[in-house]
Amino acid sequence: MRFTGKAAIVTGAASGIGLAVATRLANEGANVVLADIDANGIATLEQQLLAAGCQGVFCSPCDVSDEDQVQRAVDAAIGRFGRLDIVVNNAGIMVFKPIELQTKDDWLRVLGVDLLGAFFFTKHAFRAMTHGGAIVNVSSVHAVETEPLIAPYAAAKTALVSLTRSAALEGKPKGIRVNAVLPGAIDTDMLWSNPNVKSGQEKIATNDVGKAEDVAAAILYLASDDAAFVQGAMLRVDGGRLDR
Ligand code: NAD
């Protein structure tokens, strides 16, 4: 029970990696705010976790690209638990289009969720984490190497690495650690909605596709006291994809 007495917010908790992170944090003793734009999805997870005996969970429906909603989620955590120790910036979206067809709105939507959402939570967590804390950002291998059709996503995930480094420097004197994971191909709805993956499905089936739980394990390590001396790290969770 590494997280007994800790209070956490997990964004994108209704599905995939966020659901695995929230479930594991709750099972390891944390109080968890489930933050997602999918209010039904987090309500279902809340019921499941309560039924499993995890009493310290509640939903905060939240569009992470809206700073007022982010501030309300942070305030709700403080109001309910009296503290905030962990934020996992996991919510993310992709737009699949050739650059000639991409619009300003495509870019603003992706940057709003995948980058600004993490910025808003970092800003308000810095205010709220009065005992220090840990922030884990879910970037992607696309921050380092990428593929066609996802320019806004790759740009957002690269900038998220940059935000992680800046926030790690500014968080250090406050006792707040800020780190990132860079997942490779992970078996979630997002992966199978990617037309690049669909067209190369045979190839990817013979390579490693990780599970949401593989990424959750890495995120929980970075959020835990086991990573007390880990600051500004970029942890690839990709089964060796970048070494090929
Ligand atoms: P997913 O689609 O299963 O989950 C994404 C979650 O984010 C959903 O619950 C969705 O409702 C939520 N969300 C979307 N827009 C939101 C908003 N505006 N406000 C709040 N919540 C919002 O996908 P996933 O694979 O679990 O993705 C989780 C994170 O992992 C994302 O940041 C994604 O970019 C990253 N990632 C995924 C993979 C992969 O292969 N699956 C690889 C690298 C990185």
Automatic annotation (TrEMBL):
Belongs to the short-chain dehydrogenases/reductases (SDR) family. Residues 6-184 form the Ketoreductase domain. The keyword NAD applies. This is SDR family oxidoreductase. SUPFAM superfamilies: NAD(P)-binding Rossmann-fold domains (SSF51735). GO terms for molecular function: oxidoreductase activity. Keywords: NAD, Oxidoreductase. CDD domains: SDR_c. It comes from Massilia horti. PANTHER family: DEHYDROGENASES, SHORT CHAIN, ESTRADIOL 17-BETA-DEHYDROGENASE 8-RELATED. It comes from the Bacteria. Pfam families: adh_short_C2 (PF13561).
